[in-house]
Specification:
Strand content: 25-35%
Oligomer: single chain
Number of strands: 13
Radius of gyration: 18 Å
Number of helices: 5
């Protein structure tokens, strides 16, 4: 399902705080969702409420071909192991959409920077240049990633998700996050695949990121989380190496999409997963139904 609204959106990234009834805008060519669940500021305190940021990319009529070519170039770069410099986000005034509350640009970069600091309390100084601080990521031999950000070193592990299951099983522990990245492969009504099956309209990758101030035991925690997610109906896999690193950064469009972890999917499956991710950090009795996603 896609939402529809009057007028043509401006080319660029549109920032929203999504609600549970959010749908995929019909004009979207790429989206990045990150739901950060900050840890308590001190032992004994309650964790802060999860914060969701949805970035939706619109391409102007002249740029449609450039978007397709850009996806191909990024895929070649991924195969070659090339990591391009982080570009600046081209944020534009958000196009009005049902279920999506527009956010000002000043709220976007502080949210994205939290990916560099998952698993540890962060107290930012006022007036810091958020865009200038990117963090230095490193993939280890196992499931644990490390990231050196403004608040110091943090450790993260990634569980990739596919299929369809109980949304509550996706809820990350405090200090973690849910990330989703999807990009359009073709327009609806385009070519069909084998045996008359519609070709995939979208590529998508989704994961739950577990964060910790240290890497001690984090790999075991990720494996236990994956087992529980499988018991709840999801296809869950603990990622390692550069694939895990790409998914951990998937919610930030300044990084390339996690092509090596992506699966093809129709547009309604992207909306279904978007809704499940939003439900995972909402009310404890929420339920989401929708079409299944490709398994892993």
């Amino acid at each position: 399902m896609t939402s529809r609204s009057a007028g043509r959106p401006r080319a660029g990234w549109h920032a929203y705080r999504p609600r549970r009834d959010a749908a995929l805008p019909s004009w979207a060519v790429e989206l990045a969702l990150t739901i950060e669940r900050p840890p308590p500021s001190s032992p004994g305190d309650e964790a802060a409420a999860p914060q969701a940021l949805l970035l939706v990319h619109a391409a102007g009529p002249v740029r449609a071909l450039a978007v397709a070519l850009g996806s191909a170039v990024r895929e070649v770069d991924s195969i070659a192991g090339v990591e391009p410099p982080l570009p600046s986000l081209h944020l534009v005034p958000s196009h009005p959409e049902s279920g999506l509350d527009p956010l000002p640009p000043r709220a976007v970069l502080p949210h994205l920077r939290r990916a560099n600091e998952r698993g540890r309390p962060v107290r930012h100084r006022r007036g810091r240049a958020f865009e200038a601080v990117a963090g230095s990521w490193e993939a280890g031999a196992g499931a644990v990633l490390t990231c050196l950000g403004p608040a110091g070193l943090s450790a993260q592990a990634v569980v990739a998700l596919g299929g369809h299951g109980e949304p509550r099983a996706l809820r990350p522990p405090p200090g973690g996050a849910v990330v989703l990245r999807a990009w359009r492969l073709r327009r609806p009504g385009g070519p069909v695949g084998r045996a008359g099956e519609p070709a995939a309209e979208w590529a998508l990758a989704c994961g739950v990121v577990l964060g910790s101030p240290t890497g001690n035991g984090l790999g075991r925690i990720a494996r236990r989380y994956a087992v529980r997610a499988c018991e709840a109906g999801w296809d869950a896999t603990v990622l390692t190496g550069t694939v895990a690193l790409e998914v951990a950064k998937a919610g930030d469009p300044r990084h390339r999409p996690p092509i090596s972890a992506a699966q093809g999917a129709p547009g309604d499956a992207v909306t279904a997963l978007l809704t499940a991710c939003l439900g995972a950090t909402d009310c404890p009795d929420c339920h989401t139904t929708g079409p299944s996603l490709p398994g892993r």
